[in-house]
Amino acid sequence: MVFLFLPMVYSLYLAFQRWDGIGEKTFVGLDQFRFLLDDPTFWLALRNTLVIWGLATFPMLFMALALAAMLNSTRRLTGFYRVAYFVPNVTSVVAVSIFFFSAFSDRYGVVNAALQAINLPSVPWLNNEWTIKAVIAMLMTWQWTGYNMIIYLAGLQAIPTEIYEAARMDGAGPVRTFFSITIPMMRPIILFTLIISTVNGLQSFTEPQVLFGSNAAANPNSGGPGQAGLTTLLYFYHQAFDNNNFGYAAAIVWAFFLVILLFVIINWRTVQRGRKA
Amino acid sequence: MDLSRRRFVQTALLAAAGAGVTAACGGDSDSGGTKNGKNLTLWYWGGGLSDKVVADAKKHFTDVTLKSSVIGGTFKQKLLTTMNGGSFVPDITGIKGEDIASFLPNANRFIDLNTLGADKIASQYLDWKLKQGQTQDGKQIGFPIDIGPTAMFYREDMFAKAGLPTDPAKVAEEISTWEDYFAIGAEIEKAYPKSFLINNAGVIFDMAIGQQGKRMVDEDNKFIGDQDHVRKAWDLAVRPYELGVDAKINDESLKAAVADGTLATYLGAAWAALDIKDMGPNTKGKWRVAPLPGGPSNQGGSFLALPKECRNPEVAFEIIKWLLSPENEGRGFTDAALFPACPAAYELPALTGGDAFFGGQKTIEVFGPAAEKVPAFYEAPTNAAVTVPYYNELTNIEAKGKKPDDAWKDAVSQAKSIAKQQGVS
Predict the structure, then answer these.
(1) Is B383 near chain A, with CB under 8 Å?
(2) Which residues pair with B263 in a beta bridge?
(3) Half-sphere exposure for B152 (CA within 13 Å, toward CB)
(4) Does this entry carry the keyword Chloroplast (chain B) (predicted)?
(5) Of B7, B248, B253, the CB nearest to A108
(6) How many angstroms separate the CA atoms of B390 and B136, rounded?
(7) From B205, which residue of chain A is nearest by alpha-carbon distance?
(8) CA of B419, closest CA in chain A: separation in Å?
């Protein structure tokens, strides 16, 4: 318990100090939080995080559920499919980010080469503020769809087959069954994955960090052109470890913690309310 | 995304380590008495020192056991965390050039090397580099390993086809100012419609700031990022963009751009020669080096320092002196492309030879004089953080087509507020 809570309490304490990592700490009261409210970069980072989260989570959960439903009705090679879809989740984010980076590279990437091959104009994937977010979201979707699918699959297998048989007797097609039986029956599991994805998705860090190099000595971890890939945690990391601004970094994570909490509560209430209705 | 959670844990650990420091300080005091330890540890990063010179140092100093560790990942963070914890602190450590300023406010955590005789050998090393490792009241915290004098690398073959001078001496003469430099952009574009003069605006900003002695914060801890010297550098940085000769490369496609002739010039420090060789091995023999338009600046170059926990300061400083002697600095250049901080080394055969990658050119003839002419500068501990908005806004111009004047205003106002948050007046 000490190991769990001491760092948390300490970081809260730090949020009220100015500290460069080894020198004296100075108590600054609420200054860090006051600056946070006025810091355009913090708000930009928060906005980026939410947009990336939205772009990644909803398509991902929908795809995962659809895949799970399909896999649930296949009879052959089920083991193979399960493993195949789950593999992305156990690969290294860093390695995958590097792969995505070269695939989406403006001038020399595979994706643009493919677009040009079918006579479409090439897209400056890693130089435009929206496509940057889309690439990061794709990366997250790629990695986490399989994970959610496995959870959904477990849930699907717990639904009694009689219900499906009854539905089929009543003449419901596969799409109808999916929306009228599968989704309502899966509500608690969807809630679970939504909360997990919220907590994970809002914490996106490695993807933008690797995609938009931390190697530049003059301006490390900036989040790429237009800072479009600057997520809240990347900004926190930049403040703490590039700028040695530990007090402010602590203020960022605590403010961000409140945002995540808010999100989880909203998620919870929406799904709960849906159940009562 | 597991990693992101790990980051949280790391911060937490760092925070916990911070809590431990008060306790550690209290208990450690009796070990600081005699200071004639027989075991010394040396921390550096891959390529930070010549591994061969370090191996020889172990054989050379027989009355102590020197143990070296090559630390991977982000060096500064690991050093900071360890110093915070107060145990297993290295006796001798490297500090990167871009990090030294942030360590200087905590000079009391290091040994002033002047008390060990650094001032006696200082005259052999470049003044401006020594100054970078000094506190304002003259304590020598870092002793220079290497420097990064900058120059203009250019494609001789492309210059020839564009009707420009090709011989380094001639280039130096005809392209001596930034205006001369920007003017050749049009010639290059005429001969190579798909090529550009420069990779991005940030590079020019960095160089132009480095060509003079002031940065964003002055010695009295006052914000000066809105003054003329910064505005001038900014205007220079934006020029290629306005002239349409800026390739606007802000990602790692730089590598391919160097290899396929998208870039006719490349501005960088002496160590950038290694990057060019890595990025475009097929362009061997086509590059040359000439002085940077508008005078030299410096990019990078690291230091060795002794944390105050050092178990045998006298011997440790002897080791530093030996590792960084002119002869060994010459070896550092051969083994790890570390450009020596002591001009005496520029006469050594290791540096005076021709480089086949640059068509046999003796590059020291450009870098040597540049090294000695770098203007001394004051870099405040907050300088790196305060400079960030300028680079971000320059990329905003390149990536989003933001108007340069708006970008300047936003950069200055953000820089001001960051400066204020960091305690700059």
Answers:
(1) no
(2) B196
(3) 31
(4) no
(5) B253
(6) 26
(7) A218
(8) 11
Which pLDDT score is estimated for B363?
95
Task: State residue A108's pLDDT score.
Answer: 75
- Calpha distance A156→A136 (Å, rounded): 30
Does pTM surpass 0.80?
yes
Q: Do B1 and A21 touch (CB under 8 A)?
A: no
User: Is residue A109 one of the residues assigned to a domain?
Assistant: no
Neighbours of B34 (CB within 10 A): 8
Please state, as a whole number, how many other Cβ atoms lie within 10 Å of the Cβ of residue B315: 22
Fold for the domain defined by B2-147+300-347: D-Maltodextrin-Binding Protein; domain 2 (3.40.190)
**Six-digit token pair at B86?**
């107060």
Distances from the Cα of A148 to the Cαs of A140, A195, A205, B126, B304, in angstroms?
Answer: 12, 12, 20, 60, 50
pLDDT of the residue at A120: 86
Tokens representing residue B405 in the block: 């004047």
Secondary structure letter of residue B113 according to DSSP: G
Rounded-to-integer distance, Cα B166 and Cα B23, Å: 64
Report the CATH number at residue A257: 1.10.3720.10
Residue A72 Cα, gap to closest chain B Cα (Å): 27
CB B162 within 8 A of CB B192: yes
Residue contact B253–A105, C-beta within 8 A: yes
Identify the three-state secondary structure at position A149: helix
Tell me if A245 and B385 make a contact (CB, 8 A cut-off): yes
Beta bridge partners of B151: B268, B291
Structural fold of domain B150-297+377-421: D-Maltodextrin-Binding Protein; domain 2 (3.40.190)
Q: What integer pLDDT is reported at residue B372 of this predicted model? A: 96
Which residue does chain A place closest to B381, by CA atoms? Answer: A243
Q: Among B202, B396, B400, whose Cβ lies nearest the Cβ of A218? A: B202
The verdict on a CB contact (< 8 Å) between B250 and A14 is no
The reply to whether B2-147+300-347 and B150-297+377-421 are identical in fold is: yes
**Secondary structure element (H or E) that encloses residue B99, with its range:** helix B97-103
Determine whether the interchain pair A21/B300 forms a contact, defined as Cβ–Cβ distance below 8 Å: no
B348 vs A21, B29, B326, CA distance in Å? 41, 45, 9
* pLDDT-flagged residues of chain A (< 70): 213-218, 274-277
What is the tally of helices (H) and strands (E) in chain A? 14, 2
Q: What does each of the 425 residues of chain B score in pLDDT, given as a tens digit?
A: 444 555 555 555 554 444 444 444 433 433 444 578 899 999 999 999 999 999 999 999 999 999 999 998 889 999 999 998 888 999 999 999 999 999 999 999 999 999 999 999 999 999 999 999 999 999 999 999 999 999 999 999 999 999 999 999 999 999 999 999 999 999 999 999 999 999 999 999 999 999 999 999 999 999 999 999 999 999 999 999 999 999 998 877 788 899 999 999 999 999 999 999 999 999 999 999 999 999 999 999 999 999 999 999 999 999 999 999 999 999 999 999 899 999 999 999 999 999 999 999 999 999 999 999 999 999 999 999 999 999 999 999 998 899 999 999 999 999 999 999 888 98
CA distance linking residue A103 with residue A109, whole number of Å:
5
**Residue at token pair 């509500």:** A187
Q: Domain map of chain B by residue range?
A: 2-147+300-347, 150-297+377-421
Closest CA to B278 of B252, B316, B248: B252
Buried-state track B255-273, b at ≥16 Cβ within 10 A, e below 16: bbbbbebbbbbbbbbbbbb
Contact call for residues B320 and B143 (beta carbons, < 8 A)? yes
Q: What strand order describes the sheet that includes B65-70?
A: B65-70, B39-44, B92-95, B303-305, B143-144
- Are B310 and B111 spatial neighbours (Cβ–Cβ below 8 Å)? yes
Q: Measure CA A191 to chain center.
A: 16
Residues of chain B positioned with their CB less than 8 A from the CB of A38: 417
Query: Which structural domain, as residue segments, surrounds residue A226?
Result: 27-90+136-276
